[in-house]
């Protein structure tokens, strides 16, 4: 038996007193918990070997076992495996919902991201991936492009209207667009949406390229998109390292250069556009659209938060609204009700008077609808429902907003950009950053600062101008 208290070796004999195997013990520790752990292994003595040869082989095997155990104890031992990154990442993906059955968003985002990663790394064996392979993948990410269409007015359609002596307002209505949108589409050089250009061209029965330029640009993916892919890759390799399938996580920052990519400006409305948007919302005849757009622009709620609202979340007496749930649509799972994005996203915020009045009006309309639909609406408390009584489909919000923007001549921004607009306007209006951050559901002001630096730069310019006027006595 070995004398070292951490390295023990016991022989096992048969009935004839012959040594048939050795049992090795090593008193090490669990690399994850740091707690003591005993490792064991059995070595069978090969038949027919002389005693001295057996002893040499035993010592050799014992040394290998000790080295193995030392690596296991300090977390550097690597198990032999031929598994590819693609095979391992598939197992990792399946474990997401096993660990947390509400992790739908992370699962779907990871599944899409792995399609990109595995197209490049999927066939590599997990233990063969090295820093140069990872860096080449990052370089590939940063060079990827997608096609973006930009439509602008090449030739004014007013010549068609004037030649046929048509009424502009009537033409706009027949095209299904707002008068302002029609005016924008009539001036050479203006950018318009592809749908507007199609509507106008179809109405006059002319090719779209006769009056509009449709240009395709190759645009690189944003830095945030590339960084998100890098994060998923690092998470997968990090778990493989913890399972001792690889020695190093080569996706971590110490092995590779930083990710690059374009930095996109947030798509938001400026102050004038925001005021015009609010005016249009206040006159919107569709009750659901009016309240959904109002919750976005007055409170900065996320689309999923709006779709997950229940009447029990609104305290009309104290003028507050509480965010408790998200309703999100996933192609794989349908509409899913889950908790808030983070613990800080679960919040109670004050409702301004104008919005409170609209919510009371909407509730009266809702109660009438509930009577009309009877049993379909009887057992639900959601603010926004389909006629079937099921929660509103989140994708409806996107199509409603797009139609609303086109009707009123606003530039197109997605629903989440209404949230960005709301938060930006609060900062510009001088609302304390701590209050803005809390109402937005951010965990701290630093996150708000990082996301909305554009608004703070605007405030910095205003501060410089105000102080300059003070110094100059203006």
What does this structure look like?
The protein has 474 residues and is an alpha+beta fold. It has 4 domains: 7-74, no CATH class; 85-144 and 221-242, DNA polymerase, domain 1 (Orthogonal Bundle); 146-220, lambda repressor-like DNA-binding domains (434 Repressor (Amino-terminal Domain), Orthogonal Bundle), CATH 1.10.260; 271-456, Intergrase catalytic core (hpI Integrase, Chain A, Orthogonal Bundle). Helices cover 52% and strands 14% of the residues. It has 20 helices and 11 strands. The chain has helices spanning 51-74, 85-99, 104-121, 131-143, 158-164, 168-175, 179-184, 194-204, 208-211, 223-242, 271-282, 287-299, 303-307, 353-373, 375-378, 394-408, 415-428, 433-440, 445-451, 453-472; strands at residues 7-13, 19-29, 36-44, 145-153, 191-192, 212-220, 314-315, 320-322, 326-330, 334-338, 348-350. Strands 1-2-3 form a 3-stranded antiparallel sheet, covered by helices on one side. Strands 5-4-6 form a 3-stranded antiparallel sheet. A hairpin with a 3-residue loop joins strand 9 and strand 10 (334-338). The longest helix is centred in the first third of the chain and has 24 residues, at 51-74. The relative contact order is 0.07. The model has no long low-confidence stretch (mean pLDDT 86).
